[in-house]
């Protein structure tokens, strides 16, 4: 299978590149310097020159604070570029996968969000991702798949940064509920959906379970044997000028119905930390 992959140097994209290559796929993964996804003509040239069997977009803009300051930039990458790729996918009849986030939800549900829950983003990042979702699905309803996920770890993740800081104390938000997800498992789950020829739709793909950011940090510290103390803080979802959903945890209803299962986030975290040692 020939795959055109954007964002191949990122946390998720590098896993997709490694796992897809080991499956025997031929993956063309241009760097941002080679092809900026905002450059629709450059993407069109690649697709028209050698149409791939699948396009995956793992590129994205996810600076929460900078998205509030520069919403146009977040919209250009997370919305306009995604819509343009979906339109090309429709024109050339190529299946297309792109990624979104639990931040498309308002955060007031007292349970994990499922695929059919109604999005209502409360910040600029969430709005840009939601617009991308809508236009991807509407531009190529039979071909565009949107995979929503939540706080990724893997490679040089923020968890590793906490460990490397080697500080006595680190303050972490305790009020935001998330579904921490191992990027390696997200890539494997994506590949399973591809192999199962899952119909184009919105899918949630996260490790099983939910917890607060602070609890995730505490588990990381405990499992790694670090002496850093995590101080849970409650910022009521508002930090660095950004409102964050108090709950952005997700449940994989559709993928599970197709037999795509994820381990618990605790198991995934152990596997990730083991891979670092
Ligand atoms: N990380 C999370 O916690 C999280 C949570 C929910 C959803 N998601 C979504 O999951 C997807 C993958 O996230 P990730 O954490 O793997 O992202 P990441 O590590 O930040 O990687 C983003 C990738 O996109 C590339 N990129 C950025 N702007 C680009 C542009 N204009 N044109 C082409 N490439 C560009 C980056 O290249 P350079 O590195 O060279 O800049 C990098 O390869 C994104 O859609 C993200 O919104 C992530």
Structure characteristics:
14 strands; Rossmann fold; globular; alpha/beta; six-stranded parallel beta sheet; 10 helices; binds NADP nicotinamide-adenine-dinucleotide phosphate; 277 residues
Question: What report would you give on this structure?
Answer:
The protein has 277 residues and is α/β, with parallel strands linked by helices. The chain has a single domain, classed as 3-Layer(aba) Sandwich (Rossmann fold), CATH 3.40.50. The chain is 42% helix and 18% strand. It is built from ten helices and 14 strands. The strands form five sheets. It has a six-stranded parallel beta sheet, with helices on both faces. Strand 4, helix 5 and strand 5 form a beta-alpha-beta unit. The longest helix has 22 residues. The model has no long low-confidence stretch (mean pLDDT 96).
Provide a concise account of the structure shown.
By secondary structure, the chain is α/β, with parallel strands linked by helices. It has ten helices and 14 strands.
Strand order in the largest sheet: 2-1-3-4-5-10
Number of strands: 14
Q: What is the average per-residue confidence, as pLDDT, rounded to a whole number?
A: 96
| Distance N to C terminus | 34 Å
Question: What profile does the largest beta sheet have?
Answer: 6 strands, parallel
Number of domains: 1
CATH class: Alpha Beta
CATH topology: Rossmann fold
What's the CATH H-level homologous superfamily?
NAD(P)-binding Rossmann-like Domain
Rg result? 18 Å
Q: What is the subunit arrangement here?
A: single chain
Number of distinct helices: 10
**Helix and strand element order:** EHEHEHHEHEEHEEEHEEHEEEHH
**Which ligands occur here?**
NADP nicotinamide-adenine-dinucleotide phosphate
Uncertain runs with pLDDT below 50, 5 residues or more?
Answer: none
The CATH architecture category equals 3-Layer(aba) Sandwich
SSE class? alpha/beta
SS strand fraction: 15-25%
């Amino acid at each position: 299978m020939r795959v055109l992959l954007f964002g191949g140097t990122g946390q998720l994209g590098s896993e997709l590149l490694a796992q897809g290559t080991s499956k025997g796929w031929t993956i063309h993964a241009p760097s941002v310097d080679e092809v900026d996804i905002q450059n629709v003509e450059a993407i069109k040239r690649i697709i028209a020159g050698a149409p791939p069997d699948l396009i995956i977009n793992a590129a994205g803009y996810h600076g929460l604070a900078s998205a509030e300051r520069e919403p146009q930039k977040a919209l250009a990458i997370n919305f306009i570029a995604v819509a343009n790729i979906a339109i090309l996918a429709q024109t050339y009849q190529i299946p297309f996968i792109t990624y979104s986030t639990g931040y498309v939800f308002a955060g007031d549900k007292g349970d994990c969000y499922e695929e059919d829950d109604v999005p209502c983003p409360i910040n600029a990042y969430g709005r840009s991702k939601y617009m991308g979702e809508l236009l991807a699905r509407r531009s190529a309803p039979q071909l565009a798949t949107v995979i929503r996920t939540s706080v990724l770890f893997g490679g040089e993740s923020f968890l590793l940064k906490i460990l490397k800081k080697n500080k006595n104390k680190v303050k972490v938000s305790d009020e935001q509920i998330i579904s921490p997800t191992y990027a390696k498992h997200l890539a494997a789950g994506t590949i399973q959906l591809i192999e199962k020829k899952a119909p184009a739709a919105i899918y949630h793909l996260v490790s099983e379970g939910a917890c607060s950011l602070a609890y995730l940090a505490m588990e990381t510290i405990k499992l790694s044997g670090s002496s850093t103390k995590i101080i849970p803080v409650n910022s009521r979802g508002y930090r660095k000028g950004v409102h964050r959903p108090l709950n952005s945890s997700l449940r994989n209803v559709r993928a599970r119905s197709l037999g795509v299962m994820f381990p618990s986030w605790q198991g995934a975290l152990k596997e990730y930390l083991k891979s670092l040692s």
